[in-house]
Design a protein that fits this description.
mainly alpha; Arc Repressor Mutant, subunit A; Tetracycline Repressor, domain 2; 9 helices
Amino acid sequence: MANDKRLYDIFEAASRLFILKGYNETQIVDIAKAASISTGALYNLFTSKKAVFHFTLKCIFDQDYLSQDITIPVNEMEPSVLESVTKNVVKNYLQFNLADIELAQLPPFEEMLAKSYDLLSKFGPGFLIFERNQAAWPKLSSDYFRGRLRYFENLNRCIKAYIQKGEIRQLEHPEYHMRLIIETLAMWSVHRKYSPEGINTSDSIAKDVALDALVHAYATKI
């Protein structure tokens, strides 16, 4: 049985509000208004604002969840359940096989960029929620930031390997270029959707623009 369409609308509305306004500043009435339903109807679907927050993260990090039958009203999740879901994705995203891969077997530079873009596009809203709500959800945010640091370290190793292999040009400060690459991918895959001025373009065009800019900026062979 298909889920109530209002769940999809609430997920979209809550994701945006938790990123732009933050959890503490977002009220149930704000979510209901953004989802075009009444506050009473929202409370018929969710037991609390915290339940909406848990539901939102679950939808982002377990993208089959919304297609499954969901019991109404949606309750708050046990912390261990939510932490397990988010930790698995954070670990996979922040490494995406870079930590254990032999550097000689790295995928081509453009392929690595494309994989990074796709993962950010898929899970980035959840990462933005962690970044914007550190005080409200310190345990989940702490796990995320530790993982992000590992990701930076792994990607920095890869950038240096691409230089050694001659796939990208020599860089005087590769660690800073690594951050520039990440910020460019994040901007076009995620931030453009969740900023007040937003860039109104399709995901495919945004990806083409980001990859075209980075490949032409760094690759030795185009």
